[in-house]
Design a protein that fits this description.
The protein is mainly α. It has a single domain, classed as Tetracycline Repressor, domain 2. It has helices spanning 2-23, 27-33, 37-46, 54-58, 69-85, 88-99, 103-126, 135-152, 167-197, and strands at 158-159, 162-163. Strands 1-2 form a two-stranded antiparallel sheet. Strand 1 and strand 2 form a beta hairpin.
Length: 198
């Protein structure tokens, strides 16, 4: 229990320092304007710096070369991976959430869930979901894997022999995401042909 308490105190100190650095102000100024860490994080979440939006992930649709549902999911997940890697404060908040669930961390999780649901709605507008595939569940597993790997790099740069301290390791993950989704897409196209031949 003491270890978890120490980790929460460490998180509070590091988060405040990181937010002050990003804002370009002294940490004392942060404490002057915000009553405590929860009020600071609540403002951070509401201001949009905490989590990406669907619009940010998609970018300029006219420049996107995505035709199938698999292509769109690969695009969103790859861009989500890149975005999360650029948000060290968000990563710290997510690590804290794993240690201590509370009203604030639940509120921050709600922000993330809302964007995930909006992403699924965006995908539905682009391509119909196959009735025999649970796209939200598939997305949840892939997003959880991405989040875990990004958060894990703070304590270890390798996982299953993949070196995440180099771009090559992350490129392998991007390739795996594409292989999984496009492979599933091909398998679902082949399966009806096999059933027809029988």
């Amino acid at each position: 229990m003491r270890s978890a308490e120490r980790e929460c105190v460490r998180f509070a100190r590091e988060a405040s320092e990181a937010i002050a650095r990003e804002a370009g102000v002294d940490k004392v100024l942060i404490y002057r304007y915000f009553e405590n860490l929860p009020s600071l994080l609540e403002t951070f979440a509401k201001e949009g710096s905490y989590w990406t939006s669907v619009e940010e992930l998609v970018g300029d649709e006219t420049a996107v070369d995505a035709e199938s549902l698999a292509d769109w999911i690969v695009l969103l997940l790859t861009r989500f991976l890149h975005d999360l890697q650029k948000r060290p404060i968000t990563q710290e908040i997510m690590r804290w959430e794993l240690l201590e669930g509370n009203e604030l961390t639940h509120e921050l999780a709600t922000v993330r869930d809302r964007v995930a649901i909006e992403s699924l709605e965006f995908l539905k507008q682009k391509c119909s979901f196959p009735p025999d595939k649970d796209i939200p569940a598939i997305s949840a597993v892939l997003i959880a894997g991405i989040v875990y790997l990004v958060l894990r790099t703070k304590v270890s740069n390798t996982f299953l022999g993949i070196d995440f301290s180099s771009p090559t390791g992350w490129q392998r993950i991007e390739g795996a995401i594409a292989s999984l989704l496009r492979g599933a897409q091909i398998a679902s196209l082949i399966q009806p042909m096999v059933e027809t031949e029988e």
